[in-house]
Amino acid sequence: MKKLILSTALATLMALPALAPVQAQEPKHGGNMVVTYKDDVATLDPAIGYDWQNWSMIKSVFDGLMDYEPGTTKLRPGLAESYEISEDGLTYTFKLRPGVKFHNGRELVADDVVYSINRVIKPATQSPGQGFFGMIEGFDDAAAGKADTVSGVSSPDKNTVVFKLSRPDATFLHIMALNFSFIVPKEAVEEAGADFGKKPVGTGAFKLTEWTLGQRLVFEKNADYWISGVPYLDSFTVEVGQEPVVALLRAQKGEVDVPGDGIPPAKFVEVMKDKAQADLVVEGGQLHTGYITMNVTQAPFDKVEVRRAVNMAINKDRIVQVINGRAVPANQPLPPSMPGYTKDYEGYKFDQAAAKKLLADAGYENGFDTELFVMNTDPNPRIAQAIQQDLKAIGINAQIKSLAQANVIEAGGAGTAPMIWSGGMAWIADFPDPANFYGPILGCSGAVEGGWNWSKYCNAELDKLAAEADSIVDPNKVDERLAKWSEIYMKVMEDAPWAPVFNEQRFTMKSARMGGDDALYVDPVSIPVNYDYVYIKE
Amino acid sequence: MAAYIVRRLIQSALILLGVSFITFVLLYVLPADPVRQIAGRSATAATVESIRQQLGLDQPFLVQYGNYLLNLIQGDFGRSYLQKTEVAQLIVSRLPATLLLLVAAIACELLIGLPLGIVAALNRGKMIDNGLMLTSFLTVSAPQFVVALLLLFVFAVKLGWFPIGGYGTFAHIVLPAVTLGILGSGWYSRIMRSSMVDVLRADFIRTARAKGLGRSKVILGHALPNAILPIIAMIGIDIGLFMSGIVVVESVFGWPGIGQLAWQAIQRVDIPIIMGVTLVSACGIVLGNLIADLISPLIDPRIKLR
Fold it and tell me: What is the ipTM of this complex?
């Protein structure tokens, strides 16, 4: 079989637009960085951890076969030295980097990869990432507990891992860079049992040396890290239980290097008006879209005219003002920094007169009453009020249902919410690929009881197109694939199950002594900080 | 006495059983599915069901509750759904911080509340009495969150006398304890005042005065020991008030106690933690009341335990 050999250079071609060059000046070694968070770190088990707080810590303790260029969405090989993809796109062969050691001193071998992937898929692990591996041959049986292992992963020798897929999937290399694919040593997992998340052992740039529940975690440099010269910091300390307002006060006094929860909305204007403080804030795009879902299975949102009217009624600029300009208005599901974003699409123009006319065409000249579900933490209720006013202007009376996050998610999944403002629960991509914005939130697979497709929008034709797009694995046909994805999202906009509102920007505050390119502090895949590459200047 | 203690302990156990049942019911009917929180947004329906089965959440309510109690009797509070850590371990690691804050806060409440109550009683009906009682009314009704942030801003940020939140040294405990102390002192000053007013009217005080004892001797030697009794009982009740207050205060000051743990768990629908913290807090309240009841006869021999 003729094989497509992908070197690092080709991988780069296949990958996505870079954001910024990293490391403008010579990094310094040493020092301890202090980061704070409000909530306890839930777990550092890569098979379990799935919140943005532990996501980047796990990235620093573990590695996967694939990785990203720091501060960018560009794929690069990680623990894999090289890889090959068969022409039919169904077989991926990874060659492991020799001499990589776990924190316990043992050398990483191919069996560890097989073990780690099986562990995530195994039902007993209860991994929230299990669903990402559906393309691997034998997944269904293993996920259902009918087989102990997935048939599609094997290790013909100590340095080689072979994945066989049941369908070609262009996102597979991104999946291999996801935290859920990170490699863990079997003996350490078995020794720690259910506490592995508190006693993590990986191959990453840092190892966990202290975890005092409710107080702090200390990560120390892994001197044997396989990328020489990295990391730059000797250690970083994560202090938990710190309210964002308090963390900001401490940062202003120089006690904290990075307040991990960001600048509290109520303090944002004050901080940005003060030049000395504003200079310490780094702004970057995120792979995020905030949107209003409309349940297409219920009247009146079963009529496309009504959904389009809602799209035209929302004054997005004003909503961006409500959150002090911390976002840019959105006109389509994908955020601008995502490959496949349609640049020349103008979206639905803000035009309440035209919206009213559309409503009348749909038979609702007198408007109607509905409910808008929203998560009850600031600024979401305020945003919902702005949406409510806009809807009122075209005759739609939306009653706001402000609930705890879990309750909104429940109502969305159950399909009982006519409209939901997604803020606080909105989609931030798991990996930088347009496919990640479709399946669970716009595709038929998510439009089930309990699914995340809260519009319950299911267009079989688009599902087919999506499958076609993802079967294009040839790196030379990236543009063709992205064009297909762009087409899919344009069709979604025609059907208008969502009203996209804005794409949130990320603002990270860092102390004056912190060095490293700004992109590292708004790293799209390591939010909020890429701990491995930042350094202390003095 | 022994029979009384046994009876009270049995009553306490029944109260705790009731608390566990009501909490379990409330969490059961809550329109939020913990399995979805665990499974994440990429999970298939099959994954969700599999997790539900493993956690026993597909069982009928009474079976779930029965299993929980059975484990609880063996000292097993279960594992946190999201942190995957033993709930007992999470609570044990945070309990010392909460107990420390409890002692410090009650000390502050007494130090502020009792002198104010005594002064008010001695000046009954005068401006100073009215002023103090108005102050106590204000402190009782002040929102904890605001007082906590205000103290933090003035004494930690502006004046720099204390650290901005955290745990570890004596300096760390001052602001959270004073916050709770100010808020709770109002109760004590009011109770102290009314108790003192009653005692000052009593015959034995008049007798003491008639015998020519000095004012301070009458107040400190005779009136105070008799007036302090309701305060002892109040401390028992105060543990309950304290438990409701620590959620906010611990969160603002980054104090690693069980209040903060509860707050985080509530936001994430982490039911085993919510259950565990509720039961431990209820235990504290029940025990506090029991101890107050047991101490009362030691201070006042007129009280008999039946």
Answer: 0.79
